[in-house]
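We treat protein structure as text, and this decision shapes the records that our systems exchange. We quote a single record here, exactly as it is kept in our systems:
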Amino acid sequence: MSNGYSRRLGALLAAVGILAAGLGFAIFVLSYNHLIQVELDAGRPDEANVIRYVFPVLGYLMAAAVALWAVALYGFAMRQPWAWMLAVIAATLSLLCSFFPMIPAMSRSQTPYMALVFVPSLALWIGLVWLRQVSRKPAVLAFVAGLAYVLSFMDGVAAIDRIQIVEDDIVQGLYVMVQQVNWWASIAWAVFIFALLGRRSWALPVGLGAAIMSMLGGYPVAVESMIDKGTFSMFAPAPLLSTALLVYLLLPGTRRWLDRWTHGEHDPASVERVARAAFAGK
């Protein structure tokens, strides 16, 4: 893949990202009060408060994604090496911001308009990984970590609802204490993804910390929820997936290929750079 073609395709992806994230911000504006009223009409003021609190946070992040996509577009146009990573960050933010809003809409038989943002954002993220010709192992690991990133955020969202409806003081205190822990775990997983794809040597410790944080925030409320309801808890997928990722990251084989990946081995882009340097030397 030539650099010129990569630059033009990257600019195209960034332009689509601007449109998708911009649409997402508009959907937040248009649906915010409507969905709050829908929840109130359904007799769920607790879920209305979740929307009242979470939607603005996601709306601010979606606005940041628009700005990042725009700067990435400029970077691709100017052949800047940082453009690709900015685009990955923008796509990762867009995915998170567009996932949760689909859930309250679908639960109340409303049209999940945010799917118009989530689907292209996922395609853009995959397209950016393909554009950079990221090797299979780091690409798959980044994708799975992305699932943990979204699920950990969702655990934090669900905790906001439980805080309002749980009557036992100690259990309510538990949900209060883990709510932000799950969001911190989500942030840590996002940083791990950026470090991994950016070939940073500190990706591994960040991933370990993200997994432990997700387990600390997810397992207590998952166990409490299962005891209370007697069924599998939707709090459980995030800590379970994080546990699997923790085990995988601790494997000697994983550490070896991460070290090779960090140092640029088996990377088409690195090979191309070495070849160009050798040619220039001649």
